[in-house]
Amino acid sequence: MIINFNNVSKKINGINVVNDMSFSLAKGHVLALLGPNGAGKTTTIRLLTGLIVPNNGDIVIFNQKLNSRKVADKLREKISVQNDGSLYENLSIIENLRIWANLYNIPAKRAMSDIAELLDVFELVSRSDDKVKQLSKGMRQKILLIRSLLPKPKLLILDEPTSGLDPQTSRKLIDCLESYIEEKDTTIIMATHQLDGLEQLATDILIMNSGRVIVQGEANRLINEHWPTTQLKIELDNANKARDYFDQNFSNNYFFKNEKVYLTVKNKQSIPRIIATITSNVDVIGINKVEHTIKELYFDLLGKGVL
Ligand SMILES: Nc1ncnc2c1ncn2[C@@H]1O[C@H](COP(=O)(O)OP(=O)(O)OP(=O)(O)O)[C@@H](O)[C@H]1O
Known about the structure:
Protein name: ABC transporter ATP-binding protein
Number of helices: 10
Strand content: 25-35%
Organism: Bombilactobacillus thymidiniphilus
GO molecular function: ATP binding
Pfam families: ABC_tran
Bound molecules: adenosine-5'-triphosphate
Number of strands: 14
Strand order of the largest sheet: 6-7-8-3-9-10
Family: Belongs to the ABC transporter superfamily.
């Protein structure tokens, strides 16, 4: 495991902002830290970076107990935080990145090729000589992300990397990050409110509220546990004509919506047989398995009053 939080609590102004929190994160996994405003996400991240220390419990990163400033400083060699430090506004993108590469002690030749690769992945090659002060918010976020990737961190910590970005730019940033980490085996923990398309990047999720963990684990497992049955979406040539057939054969396990049938199947093994039966009895245009999302899981838990 790269990170272990063992019964960690943190009190601020007499309030348990993080309350008996336990979770772990395996190498190469991407954890999305989710929860409403004030849930304790940023505090969790500050605990993780050693900026604040827990009142109870312990934090173990790369098998080292995070119990002193010295350990936190040592761990900094393996950890990058996106929002650490600011950019030099009057310098260009490339100048900024060279300065940071130098601060990270990256040899000049390697820095040149790494910066070129990152600018390419993040689609900023044509803007590399632009001054930072001329950049849009989305571009700045990209530069901060590139900067945090430069030291090739084993663990990358992101606090709302897409905050304030429009949906398109935010998706683009995540796409860039995804294509960069695909080959790099970087472990990531990312606090975010951006739930759309999160499964594209996140392997694990942790939903917290009022300082407590509500659910945590691998996203696929949590989704499968939450929706143990499979739902098939069946597009029909003539939905009205097919109503009787579904009534007689699937009684309460289906509903019609927008000319489509949504059929719940309890036993996954029976899916091929069911599809064969349906296609031989009604005119089917297409059948898809309904894939549930992290966003649905989040709001389902929220709607049920768990959060
Ligand atoms: N330095 C501080 N002084 C006082 N209260 C604090 C401090 N830091 C955090 N808190 C309180 O702790 C709680 C959790 O805050 P935190 O910033 O960790 O939440 P968050 O989940 O990151 O929220 P958001 O999504 O709004 O960024 C909040 O009630 C906040 O007011």
